[in-house]
Write a structure and sequence with these properties.
CATH superfamily of the largest domain: MFS general substrate transporter like domains
Oligomer: single chain
CATH architecture of the largest domain: Up-down Bundle
Order of helices and strands: HHHHHHHHHHHHHHHHH
Number of helices: 17
Number of strands: 0
Shape: globular
CATH topology of the largest domain: Growth Hormone, Chain: A
Number of domains: 2
Largest sheet: none
Distance between the termini: 55 Å
């Protein structure tokens, strides 16, 4: 009986990981193609920024909604519904005959939040002892999809933009069949889980107000927001910069996103534990800010492809430092019973930054000047260095 149960558990975990991998692969296949297909409809950087904005906005709105609904009505139902939305979004991309089709496809894609539901499902089917490992596998599956997706999308672009969308539709439909056939429900709907949305909204507002009265956390939240705001502009600006200087094709651009994905995976997966242990989060955050500032500021002045990849390496390294060190520092300075709340607040700040970042970058690039979005982002990020210096002295005085 234990052997059968073990096989069943492995199958469920495999399907969950496959679901996340397909979700990330489909997303990553499409992203490098959006600037080029948008251009075929006569849309520039501002329109591309809007495509990124609606996706981020829908993710910000629907991730907690879908998570709450899965708590109330079951993971399986919401996961299948989310996969169905993904499939529909890829279909809209495949048959897109206008910019508005693309916009609708990004809205639907943002509403589909498989990874948040998949993480909850994985937590349901793993023991406390193995839960961290299980959730780590979910993140690894997502990272693998983000790395592989651009290569597939770039390669299929030689056939046509529709080819990547069609493959994504096929993969999500296979995913839908497996999830429907082999994933049982893990949550029994009951009144205990039915918390009103009003109370939940009030609790988030209360938490935010409480965070504002903390001595250090508000400064870290502002820093995290600004850095993610600046980095959110990269998918908008890099396609236009590389086209301006080097005439990159769809496949060339896809390799840039693969490079960023691999570098982020290596930094966050293998380097951060040792670095944070030896030099501490404060120094890593400061270095991250400096790296991102100079990486963005120098981007409009590219003498060669080699210099471009050096800047991308600096940017990705700085982002990797920030995305790990800021939540890590928040967890260390928070009370044990409040760690999860404030780390969640940090992720909310990061998600919120993804909404205005792409649109403002696109608008300033298209209607102000080539250099404007880089100058704005680099200045905003650099100013957060003063906040981190204050954090350092505040924490030092507390000891």
């Amino acid at each position: 009986m234990n052997e059968i149960t073990s096989k069943s558990s492995r199958l469920k975990k495999s399907i969950i990981l496959f679901t996340v991998f397909i979700d990330a692969t489909g997303y990553a296949m499409i992203i490098p193609l959006l600037p080029f297909i948008s251009a075929t409809f006569g849309v520039g950087a501002a329109g591309l920024g809007l495509l990124m904005l609606v996706f981020a906005l829908m993710q910000f709105i629907f991730s907690p909604i879908m998570g709450n609904l899965s708590d109330r009505y079951g993971r399986r139902k919401l996961l299948i519904g989310s996969i169905g939305l993904s499939s529909l979004s890829f279909l809209m991309f495949t048959i897109a005959t206008s910019y508005w089709f693309l916009l609708i496809s990004r809205i639907l894609s943002g509403m589909a939040t498989e990874i948040s539901i998949a993480q909850a499902y994985m937590a349901d089917i793993t023991s406390n002892k193995k839960r961290t490992s299980g959730l780590g596998k979910v993140r690894a599956a997502f990272s693998a999809g983000v790395i592989i997706g651009p290569v597939i999308g770039g390669a299929l672009s030689f056939i046509g933009y529709w080819a990547a969308g069609l493959l994504a539709v096929g993969l999500t439909l296979i995913n839908l069949v497996f999830a429907s056939a082999f994933l049982p429900e893990t949550v029994i709907s009951n009144n205990r889980n039915k918390i009103s949305e009003k109370k939940e909204a009030e609790s988030k507002i209360t938490l935010f107000k409480k965070a504002l009265h903390k001595p250090v956390i508000p400064l870290l939240l502002i820093t995290f927001f600004m850095v993610n705001y600046a980095f959110a502009a990269i998918p908008i600006l890099v396609p236009y910069v590389t086209d301006e200087f080097f005439g990159f094709t769809e496949f060339d651009l896809s390799l840039v996103f693969v490079f960023i994905g691999v570098l982020q995976f290596l930094i966050q997966g293998f380097l951060m534990d040792k670095l944070s242990e030896y030099v501490g989060e404060i120094l890593l955050i400061a270095v991250g800010i400096i790296f991102i500032t100079f990486g963005i500021a120098l981007m409009p002045f590219l003498p060669s492809i080699l210099f471009f990849y050096i800047l991308i390496s600096i940017l990705s390294t700085g982002s990797g430092f920030m995305r790990t060190s800021v939540p890590g520092l928040i967890s260390k300075i928070s009370k044990e019973e409040e760690q999860g709340k404030y780390m969640g607040l940090a992720q909310s700040a990061a998600s919120l930054a993804l909404i205005p970042g792409p649109l403002i970058a696109g608008l300033t690039y298209e209607y102000v000047s080539f250099e404007a979005p880089f100058i704005i982002s680099s200045i905003l990020v650099f100013l957060t260095l003063f906040l981190i210096v204050k954090v350092y002295f505040d924490l030092k005085n507390r000891k």
